[in-house]
């Protein structure tokens, strides 16, 4: 292991190494080397395909487990406790009543209505607490990194952060199991982000079987990027969304076509596997099918849609703010010491509150699926949502549900359980969207002759406003406000709903929400968590340097830990590597820059050459053209420790350009020189600091990601 | 104008300038400067929105014009010649026969069947020649840059190539008009690529109204990128596809979120405008609606789909090869001197051949729309395609049509008319896909009990194989083989067909085609044309340097045109700028690098300071820290001519890394130094040369894009 956990890899160096290996193999024109090249490539594809299949199967298995656990909270199957409600009642003729499925009160044969509901609700709450508590216990005891969503860490890892403990098989197991328990407990969380983490753990596990990935941090990360695409693909049933999510949100490799390719393949295979197993017997990828109420929409609808966008932006920012405050409070209060108790309490409160309101009692996915549907007499009425006389009650209930879910989500996201933010956000947005939709519809039916509504069909029995579709827009806007994703969000949403004809309104909603949200606070929720945990991640944002130049941000010459060429002895260098954890040291002669020696190379040189005789020898570094010149008796040639791929700039360069270079080239450091003299140095950590300067809580949750 | 047409802009320099301007405005805390910042941003959005609306309207108008001209080849409306067939026959009760529309033989009252068909076919061919000839004449006489698709040039321009003549209002007009004529003439070409060009011309035209874009080549390009997205959006009715096309195919700005944003907005607005005008009264964005034959597909279908992928890859490569050969032949033969005659002849041949085969007689878009449809007794039979007894005849006809279209397309793409390659490629692929689909279906119905087909429903009246959908896959595969696009292609295709549930098979088709195609030849058709015209465009491909280092590719110190600090006089510098067209000159003292002076800055210095007295003064260049030191009597301070944003590397750096830097940072040059001494320099032109080394016909169509 060349890198410790917590350090950052040097991309240029890693890629140079990989190219060297590649070239070495290709230059030997033997059959064996040809086979070896072929085998390398085959192994990559093997891991990609295995990950795709693995995450597809895991996703399907998770769905089944969650469904079973969730149903268990309400009753059991007479045929056997391992059937869920749907499979228990399958095989019936239409119209036949399912008698095999018993609620708990039926099972215990309780007749009194009061006792019935008491028993039902207490089992409901107890099992919720039990599931959530177990999840928290598992996470706390066996795999602390399995908590939370995992997306911030994946972003940091793909950017070069070394965090192998985050990807162990043990984390994989606990995250998958804990996720199923946490989702089934009815906590306000989703499975989407954690599934991406699980996919990455899988890819990492498969990659450990082959030596070639152990040596290459860059190759490993390219595999992880493909795995992340597969994870999104399974989480949302959105193979294309997975690829574009990788491009937009994890855009470390945007330019490298082979990475996109692997993501494409992994994503497709994962979706095919999921569809093949078909956990719910629908043989559909589309999770929340929207019954499209006609492809047309009217100009006046832009008003409610823009409103939804604004609401999404404001509430999204509020959710982020609330979540940050709660996370800080949790960290600094007594809660920090009782994570399992916290989870149990919150799950009890969630279950108790949820049981009261009809829209929060069901699982979020079921709620969302129903909110996205239009009212259709043939389909039956979902909890009275389509009852036009109960309009105000419905709007009130929906808004209450949204408020409850918002607070619960802000609290839940960050507790000691695996928890995604996507689904709860969709649920909040869908409630609000539906409420706005119902309102708009009722205004339109009340004043059908108003000039605003003249574009509606004159026949009052034909629906003009489709509240179900407003739900979709509300969900899009809320997601836009919370995650600040754009294109990938639109793609995911319309793969999720199948509402292809409505891509324009979804775009409008997401755009407005992002604008409003950005005005209220620059970062999405993932970036906020990255900053709070201080991972060395450089977000792909435009950096406004306010006219500052590199010299204002760099560590100046005087503050740098340097190797003096021709003066430092091998002993000095040993001391240097022991006292400083830096990734490397500039080598200078006086003030002239000679090169940059990486700690890694220095250590391997020391392990070979350090002895009592060599300890006092002076270190020399030559350029290749001087290589033949001899070293004196008391000197040692350390030229091999110099790094070739080092960038030099002048210190008058604008900071914005320096940041761009770090963003685009994944640099680890830049040296600033003028006429061959070293002026200073800027590392990835410095750039991360510059970019996080506006955020007040940087590192508030522990400085986990020191860059060395 | 700072840059001549044909040169390449220096992105780092341009962006630095822009930041400076920005900063200057922001640092003045007056209301006026605040307003000015606001106005700058408002102007950008104004141009983006105007372009979106403009291209939406232009696209709709084009559709109407093409439809009218196309119908004119078959007959005329009694109500007036300016009605097309659909609007002429609108307002009829169902079942009523349209008498207002007359074929030409009806109009001229010809009764004999032989004379009828003779008249019809001769008018058909004559008008085709007339339309195509007019288009060619217009292009040839008024706007030679309006020929071809325009995508290669747009790619080059977005990459930094300066080519303002390509974007004039005159080109806009001729391209739009010529495109309508060319499409209506029935030549084997599409409107998609040219529409992107038209959109860019519009953005350029609108941007000329504001001073702020005149000064900034970078800002101008960011506008063009958004316009290109809008163009794709209108061309395919695919707003999301437009944005992703920009990301993948024109990925110069992938990281810059504001560019993506503007693309997003322009794209959405263009699609809304198009939908609002609704040229065909369908109020749909989806052009080739697929009647989804059930969401399920069977495992055995992977075999024909993979076959289609392979066919697409092979035929795509063949089409590219054929197109290149024809382009070279055209260039080097007598054809070069008679472009209009060539167009007229080819259009006559196209019309004559097309008239013979039923599938080629109609416009390609109509053919594709029908091939994409499943057979449905209620819809009627399209040219006997659904007749199961005529299976072999249909397969034969479809393959013949594909072959004819392939040859005609290879010839047409590159003639002196606006011509896109997308639609013809889709048509070729759709024909082949439908043929394969019909074959698969007939095998399945012939052997329903074979183990391969056991997954099909047992009821023989239920369709198991959907040949219409095979058409879509065939089209995807063919497009993948010709353009080598991936993700954006999939998005465009499924926005085009609405076949969301079939995104996985489309992905399989595109993937296979790209793999097979890449094995046969690395470049897509656009990149081949870029190379043939030698535009300074750096394709975002992985470059394999075979172990070479930067020193192997750079211009070494001895070959560089340099300024000797303290020795060169102002007169020398004047001679330098007159004899060399280079973008800039390294400044050295002996062998030590002082900096890099751009020609642009030198010229402005010369224009201010050159006189007979100063002509013999020596030029000095100082760093900022020495700025206060005085210049001697016979010396001049040219420090202001130095460029700050210059990258230095060591010449031992691998070439692959250097190429990556050029790709990701849009560099213009890199200097190679060691211990302050200049070793050499590498410019964009050198990198383009490296990347095109494998292509034998680089610059074969004229060295239009010399990088200075």
UniProtKB/TrEMBL annotation, chains A, B:
Signal peptide: none
UniProt keyword annotations, A-Z: Chloride, Ion transport, Membrane, Transmembrane, Transmembrane helix, Transport
CDD domains xrefs: ClC_3_like
GO cellular component, one term: early endosome
Molecular-function GO terms, alphabetical: voltage-gated chloride channel activity
Annotated InterPro entries: CBS_dom_sf (IPR046342), Cl-channel_core (IPR014743), ClC (IPR001807)
Keyword Transmembrane found: yes
SUPFAM superfamilies: CBS-domain pair, Clc chloride channel
Membrane spanning stretches: 44-66, 121-147, 167-187, 194-211, 223-247, 259-277, 302-320, 340-358, 395-414, 421-443
Membrane topology, from the record: Multi-pass membrane protein
Location of this chain's protein in the cell: Membrane
Name this protein carries in UniProt: Cl-channel protein
The species this protein was found in: Lentinula raphanica
């Amino acid at each position: 292991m060349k890198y410790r956990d917590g350090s950052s890899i040097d991309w240029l160096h890693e890629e140079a190494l990989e190219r060297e290996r590649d070239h070495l193999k290709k230059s030997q024109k033997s059959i064996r080397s040809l086979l070896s090249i072929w085998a390398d490539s085959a192994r990559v594809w093997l891991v990609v395909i295995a990950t795709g299949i693995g995450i597809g199967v895991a996703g399907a298995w998770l769905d089944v487990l969650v469904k079973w656990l969730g149903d268990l909270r309400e009753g059991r199957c007479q045929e056997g406790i391992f059937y869920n409600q749907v499979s228990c009642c399958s095989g019936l003729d239409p119209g036949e009543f399912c008698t095999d499925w018993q609620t708990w009160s039926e099972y215990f044969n309780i007749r009194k209505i009061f006792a019935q509901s008491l028993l039902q609700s207490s089992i409901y709450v107890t099992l919720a607490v039990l599931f959530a508590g177990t999840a928290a216990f598992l996470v706390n005891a066996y795999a602390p990194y399995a908590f939370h969503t995992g997306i911030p860490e994946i972003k940091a890892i793909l950017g070069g952060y070394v965090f192998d403990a985050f990807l162990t098989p043990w984390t994989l197991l606990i995250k998958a199991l804990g996720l199923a328990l946490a989702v089934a407990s009815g906590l306000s969380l989703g499975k989407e982000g954690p599934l991406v983490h699980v996919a990455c753990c899988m890819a990492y596990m498969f990659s450990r079987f082959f030596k070639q990935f152990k040596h290459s941090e860059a190759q490993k990360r390219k595999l992880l990027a493909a795995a992340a695409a597969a994870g999104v693909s399974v989480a949302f049933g959105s193979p294309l969304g997975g690829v574009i999510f990788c491009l937009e949100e994890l855009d470390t490799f945007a330019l490298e076509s082979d990475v996109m390719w692997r993501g494409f393949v992994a994503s497709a295979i994962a979706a095919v596997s999921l569809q093949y197993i078909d956990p719910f017997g629908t043989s559909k990828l589309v999770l929340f099918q929207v019954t499209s109420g006609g492809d047309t929409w009217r100009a006046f609808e832009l008003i409610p849609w823009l409103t939804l966008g604004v609401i999404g932006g404001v509430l999204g920012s509020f959710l982020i703010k609330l979540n940050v405050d709660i996370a800080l409070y949790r960290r600094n209060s007594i809660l920090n010491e009782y994570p399992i108790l916290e989870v149990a309490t919150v799950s009890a409160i969630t279950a108790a509150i949820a049981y009261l309101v009809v829209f929060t009692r069901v699982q979020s996915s079921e709620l969302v699926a129903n909110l996205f549907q239009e009212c259709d007499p043939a389909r039956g009425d979902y909890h009275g949502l389509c009852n036009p006389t109960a309009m105000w009650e419905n709007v009130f209930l929906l808004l209450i549900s949204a408020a409850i879910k918002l607070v619960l989500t802000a609290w839940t996201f960050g507790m000691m359980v695996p928890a995604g933010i996507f689904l709860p956000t969709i649920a909040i947005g869908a409630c609000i969207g539906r409420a706005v939709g119902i309102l708009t519809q009722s205004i339109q039916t009340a004043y059908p002759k108003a000039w605003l509504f003249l574009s509606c069909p004159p026949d009052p029995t034909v629906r003009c406003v489709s509240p179900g579709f407003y739900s979709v827009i509300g969900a899009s806007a809320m997601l836009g406000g919370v995650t600040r994703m754009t294109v990938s969000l639109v793609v995911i949403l319309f793969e999720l709903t199948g509402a292809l004809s409505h891509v324009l309104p979804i775009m409008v909603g997401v755009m407005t929400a992002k604008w409003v949200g950005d005005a209220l606070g620059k970062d999405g929720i993932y970036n906020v968590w990255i900053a709070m945990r201080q991972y060395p991640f450089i977000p792909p944002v435009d950096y406004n340097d306010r006219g500052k130049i590199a010299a204002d941000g760099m560590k100046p010459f005087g503050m740098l830990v340097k190797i003096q060429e021709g003066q430092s002895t091998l002993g000095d260098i040993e001391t240097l590597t022991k006292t400083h954890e830096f990734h490397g040291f500039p080598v200078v002669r006086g003030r002239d820059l000679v090169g940059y020696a990486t700690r890694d190379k220095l250590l391997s040189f020391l392990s070979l050459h350090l002895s009592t005789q060599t300890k006092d020898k002076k270190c020399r570094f030559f350029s290749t053209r001087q290589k033949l010149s001899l070293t004196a008796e008391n000197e040692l040639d350390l030229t091999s420790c110099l790094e070739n791929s080092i960038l030099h700039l002048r210190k008058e360069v604008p900071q914005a350009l320096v940041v761009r270079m770090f963003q685009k080239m994944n640099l680890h450091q830049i040296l600033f020189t003028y006429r061959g003299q070293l002026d200073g140095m800027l590392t990835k950590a410095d750039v991360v600091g510059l970019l996080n300067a506006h955020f007040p809580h940087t590192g508030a949750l522990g400085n986990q990601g020191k860059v060395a």
